[in-house]
Specification:
Length: 196
């Protein structure tokens, strides 16, 4: 699957009917330098449907998660509305109809990486320079069920921190990433309670 320029896949899901949903980016199609692409195929690999998301800048995909209702959440960052990039998040159904989409960020780089459904909403995590203005911090965006960003939290030290994935265990969320707080780049795990 692809065109004359580069394409990349970051995640995929198997649908209940056996179709495959692939998430990534394309440089061959769309309206900008690089757009998000969602490609649905059947179990034999035949292309069934394509959704392109993006504007005049470039978009970078993070990861995708299936919701309890059978829809799909994606995390990304976009340079189409803010040249330094904002968090981008969207919800769509199995037919690739966009239910809602949103952004959150400041004038510094904010990069959405991963997204997860919670008991009463959605959490999108990623990396941001909006809080420190120099080194990267962890950025956590609480999102309502209708796609509105409601609260932003930052976690970090005077050094660089990056996160790339989140899982839920019980009432806590665990973020995996890296930190340079010890001088070198080390593995970092952050435990975040639901009330945080």
């Amino acid at each position: 699957y692809g065109g004359p320029s580069a394409e990349l896949t970051t995640d995929f899901e198997i649908l209940t009917n056996g179709d495959i949903l692939i998430y990534g980016y394309t440089n061959s199609y769309g309206s900008g330098d690089r757009d998000l692409i969602l490609l649905k195929t059947n179990s034999s690999g035949d292309s069934l449907q394509t959704l392109l998301l993006g504007g005049s800048g470039y978009e970078q995909p993070g990861y995708m998660q299936k919701t309890s209702a059978g829809n799909f959440l994606i995390a990304a960052h976009t340079g189409s509305t803010e040249p330094n990039h904002n968090f981008y998040f969207a919800l769509f159904d199995q037919n690739l109809n966009v239910i809602w989409q949103g952004e959150k960020g400041d004038m510094m780089p904010d990069h959405g990486e991963c997204i997860i459904e919670t008991a009463d909403g959605i959490i999108c995590i990623g990396n941001s320079m909006s809080n420190s203005m120099a080194d990267s911090d962890v950025m956590v965006v609480d999102i309502s069920n209708n796609g509105s960003p409601e609260n932003v939290s930052y976690y970090g030290t005077a050094a660089e921190e990056y996160v790339y994935s989140i899982i839920r265990i019980g009432n806590s969320y665990y973020l995996a990433g890296t930190t340079k707080s010890g001088g070198n780049m080390d593995v970092m795990i952050v435990k975040m309670n639901q009330a945080d």
